[in-house]
Write a structure and sequence with these properties.
Length: 225
Amino acid sequence: MIEAKNLTKRFGRIVALDGVTVEIPEGFNLILGPNGGGKSTFFKLATGVYRPTSGRIALFGKNPWTDAGVKRKIGVSYDPVSFPPLISGWEWLEFIARSKGFDESEVERVGKLFQLDFLDERTSNYSSGMLKKLAVAQAFVGAPKLIMIDEPLANIDFETMGRFVKLFRKMKGETSFLVISHIWEPLKPVVDRLYVISNGRLILQGEARELWDEVERLFRFPVSE
């Protein structure tokens, strides 16, 4: 689905991503790493928000920076969440749906799927949890081949977290996922492959079932007495 070769992104003197080479296949893929390590930069390069400084990245064999058509095959949710303040959640999802060739029936489907009972309200009145629910829901509009979500479990309660994980598990047979999350324990039952990006480099990748112990060691910090 996603292939990167010697992928590098600089912002002035800052090297956000440094020569990453990776192939991400179908399934549920999870990217981990510290804040500022390069996860979100890779994510935005893959979705075509950023242009590589050097190297290349392909999404379904196409360049996401120049090929608008390939973007219609994916559903995306970014973090931090941001919406136009004077529109309702319904209007936002309808905008996403129509941009992909769907009508309001698709909004109804996604609204029921995520139990969004607040879509008639303006997004400026939403709590942080409501905003996150809407952001994740938008990624499911249009039955995309690949759903890409940055921090799906942030700013939501435990009940919603459980519903999201259950939905991800249900959808695994119908679509693929690329997810960034600092909260990864609840996702363990659904993850197929893991990737760890730190200091702009890919330092670990492979089958999740073989790497959880290594991940635990990486994220276990010594406590001073």
